[in-house]
Structure formats: structure tokens, C-alpha cells
Amino acid sequence: GEKVEQHESTLSVREGDSAVINCTYTDTASSYFPWYKQEAGKSLHFVIDIRSNVDRKQSQRLTVLLDKKAKRFSLHITATQPEDSAIYFCAASGGTGGLSGKLTFGEGTQVTVIS
Amino acid sequence: GGIITQTPKFLIGQEGQKLTLKCQQNFNHDTMYWYRQDSGKGLRLIYYSITENDLQKGDLSEGYDASREKKSSFSLTVTSAQKNEMAVFLCASSIWGAQDTQYFGPGTRLLVL
Q1: B66-80 b/e (C-beta count within 10 Å ≥ 16 → b)
Q2: pLDDT tens-digit profile of B98-109?
Q3: C-alpha to C-alpha distance for A65 and A36, rounded to whole angstroms
Q4: How far apart are the C-alpha atoms of B101 and A55, rounded to whole Å?
Q5: Which of A38, A9, A30 is nearest to A91 (CA)?
Q6: Which of B30, B43, B50, B52 to mutate to test the interface with A (most CBs of A within 10 A)?
Q7: Secondary structure class of A71 (helix, strand, coil)
Q8: Which pLDDT score, from 0 to 100, does residue B84 have?
Q9: How many of the other CB atoms lie within 10 Å of CB of A39?
């Protein structure tokens, strides 16, 4: 089955700098790649996603890049703020999509923004 | 908007006990999920359900049962709690399937003595 590896387990950045989190996946049929954020003591919520028909998607300070050849995708956070401090999870959908299929999550990256 | 509620918030059980966790959503979503989150690890899918009375096994289904009695509710049973087990169980729902945004509940924290 699909395996998702999240390369950075922790990441510290100075406020205002950029942060990049990298993930790789194994299933070439995967076509949907969301990112979720978990703030301390809270549950997960969706932040941004990308589908395999594009290689870049931006939403305000967040950009996701997808390299299908390398089976790699990344989350870029620009102009980081203290409220960006959280655990970020990448995920991939195992190619079946639609009604069936499931998300496979990476192990999470703890991002800490230092003021 | 909608909300997902999970009960109980905290669950303390004894080794070998059968424990049931409940989840309700008012999004009117078709698909619901149960995940287990262990400290320092990602989420692992236990069961999911694409419609009422449907059940699909995830990667971690052994030791668990699930039930989707109606569209809005999805329950998970730990069939025999393991001593010293400690994890957070997260329920989620999505409008259709795995390629739609999942909305997560607040979680149930399990501790087995």
C-alpha cells in the first residue's frame, strides 16, 4: 500500500522567515495530496491541498509544490507568524479516489516559529 | 458549517475490557473515518464507512470493530483493551471520499490501566 514519508520531524524558523516541509510517497497512482495542521492540544484541520493535474497551488502564505516524477510534494510557508507553530501532516490518497480509497498520512512535522 | 462531536473525551479502561467510542457529525457527509494517533506518530486509519451500514477496514483494524448505524453516527469498539495502551482516537468525515477535505472531531483520549 501507499507509504508517505515526512522528512523533517521538527523545524524551527525565525518569525518572518520561510519554512519548507518535504514529503515523499510511493504509489504512482496517488493523485490527491492534502496538508493538515494540528495546533497544541487541538485536533487536525485542513490547510491546503493539491491534485495531480497541477504542480503548484498557492493560498495566501501557503504554497504546495508537486513533483510527480520524483513522487515528492512540499509545503512552503512564507512570512511565518507565531500562529503558524503547529504540527503539520502531509497525506496522499492511494489512487482509487472518489467514493473509495483512503488517505495515508506522514508522521508530522513540528514547526516552531521563534519570535 | 457543521460539527463533529466525539464521546467520551477521556476514556480510562482496564486490560481486557471492551470499550466503545462514539462519533456524530451534522455535515450530512457520506464518509466517516476512525483514526488512531499515537504520540510522535502520524494518523493510522482503523475503519472507514462510505455510507450507512457500510464498513471498510483500514490499516489498523485488528483489535477493533466499528458500526455505522446511521449516516450521522459512527462508533468504534476496542474489543480487548491492551494494558498500558495510550492513544488518541480521531473521528473524521468527508462529503464523499478520500479525495475530499476531511473534517476532524476533537478526539477521545484512551488510557488503559
Answers
A1: bebeebbbbbbebee
A2: 788 999 999 999
A3: 15
A4: 19
A5: A30
A6: B43
A7: coil
A8: 85
A9: 13
